[in-house]
Structures are given as C-alpha cells and as structure tokens.
Design a protein that fits this description.
CATH topology of the largest domain: Jelly Rolls
Shape: globular
Number of strands: 18
CATH class of the largest domain: Mainly Beta
Order of helices and strands: EEEEEEEEEEEEEHEEEEEHH
Largest sheet: 6 strands, antiparallel
Structural class: mainly beta
Distance between the termini: 35 Å
Radius of gyration: 18 Å
C-alpha cells in the first residue's frame, strides 16, 4: 500500500529562486506517493506567508506554471477533456486559468487598480513523478498549443526584453518587476518528495550519471532542460554546479 498522510496532516514542497531574464525557466520536479488533489500556489508577485511559514516579499514577476508528466522528456499534462494544466494571470485556459483566479498572495497596485499576478491551481493527480515549469507569464511553452513535450520551443511575448514587466491593460500602465519567484506544492493525503535540482536523472542521488547528463545538455546532445543557474542557457557553469553537488559540496542550483 502506498504511504499516505494521517488525517489532518499535510505534505509540501516550497521552492524559491530568481530567474535572470524573462526568457529563463525554472523546473520543479516532485514525486507523489498516492492519489490526491494537489495545490500549486505562487507568492513572488504579491508576497505573503508560504506554507513553510516564511515571509515572501512582493516584487517578483507574474508567473505562468505548466504541469508535465515525468521528468526531462515529459509531455505536458492534460485533464480528461484534453486541456493543458497551466495557469497565469493573462492565460485563458479554463478551467485551470481564468480571470479572477486569484490566490492567497497579495495584490499590487498598477495605476488605479490592485492586480493579482500570482496563480493557484488544484489538480487531481495519481501517484507518480511530475515536473512543474515556471516562467514569466509572457514566455509561454509551445506545448500549451499542441500538447507537446517539455522541450518544445517557447512562444515569446516579452519582445526579447531583459526587464520583467507587468501591465494592466485597463489602466494602460506597466510596472517593472524583478526575477524572484516562490512556489508551494501541497498535498493533504500523499507524501510529496522534492528532488534536488542537481539530481538530473531524479534517482534521489547526485553522482557521475548526473554529471554526464548535464554535459550532454551543454553539448546539445539532449534538450537543455536543466538551466541550474537561471541564466537562460545550459553550459559549463551548470556542469560545475552538478560536479560540486556530486562531490558533496551541496547543490547551488537556483
């Protein structure tokens, strides 16, 4: 029987970091030990207190979160009606993303309006391993449009800008933001297991196998899905991060 939580308990993974540009991507891989409805909630835009009890400062970008089945070669996760499970404040993707889908995070004043840029989804999931992709809301994975794999090209609505920006189309006002993000993944029935970002093959160990995998990504042999330092590319810097982790020096992935 799969391990489950006692009644009233919760299991969670809290993840935070900084994207270097609006075209950077964060990947959060987690394993679920039993079927449950999982809550995904971000805090970086409006701030608040996350599930770990930490105060998250407002000021980050408004994010897009997209769920995939599995790890590096994963396909986008779709519901029983074929809808991709993804949410952003500017994404029309019912029932997962719609106007007014505002979570517990704070709002930010843009012009004369108070805007909610953070997102929240509650998704029924079976036991297994999943990857959540987090990007700027204007940097959309192409998989949203054809139910493709995690390595599908992106659709860039940022205009190539290096400045994170959020606009209120009603007020006609835009504000600049930073690259900070914060995400909670919460279960009330199953045990959630978060993987180290340096554990490239997600086998709960960081070793020479992971070093070889990140080298392959840097050389273009495989898809560059593990940008560990958030600079928009996979290269020797990411390889060094995994080598350090394999040597027991800790994982410095963002």
């Amino acid at each position: 029987m799969a391990p489950q939580l006692a009644q009233g308990q919760t299991s969670s993974v809290s993840n935070s970091g900084t994207l270097s540009t609006p075209q950077s991507v964060a990947y959060i891989t987690f394993a679920l030990t039993a079927t449950d409805t999982i809550t995904f909630k971000t805090w970086g835009f409006g701030g608040g207190i996350n599930v770990a009890g930490n105060a998250i400062q407002a000021g980050g970008f408004d994010p897009l979160i997209t769920l995939y089945s599995g790890v590096a070669a994963a396909n986008i996760y779709v519901d029983g009606s074929g809808n991709p499970v993804a949410d952003a404040d500017n994404l029309v993707n019912p029932p997962w993303s719609y106007v007014g889908n505002c979570p517990a995070a704070g709002t930010v004043q843009i012009g004369t309006n108070n805007d909610c840029g953070d997102v929240q989804m509650q998704v029924p999931l079976a036991a297994g391993t999943y990857t959540l992709m987090l990007t700027d809301a204007n940097y959309e994975p192409g998989a949203l449009y054809d139910n493709a794999a995690i390595a599908a090209p992106f659709v860039d609505f940022t205009g190539g800008s290096l400045q994170f920006q959020t606009c209120d189309p009603v007020a006609g006002v835009c504000i600049n933001r930073n690259g900070n993000y914060a995400l909670d993944i919460v279960s009330t029935k199953a045990i959630l297991l978060g993987f180290s970002k340096c554990d490239i093959n997600q086998d709960m160990n960081t070793n020479v196998s992971d070093v070889q995998l990140i080298i392959n990504e840097g050389l273009g042999v495989t898809a560059p899905t593990n940008d560990l330092n958030g600079d928009g590319v996979v290269n020797v810097a990411d390889v060094q991060i995994v080598i350090n982790a394999a040597l027991g020096l800790g994982c410095a992935g963002k």
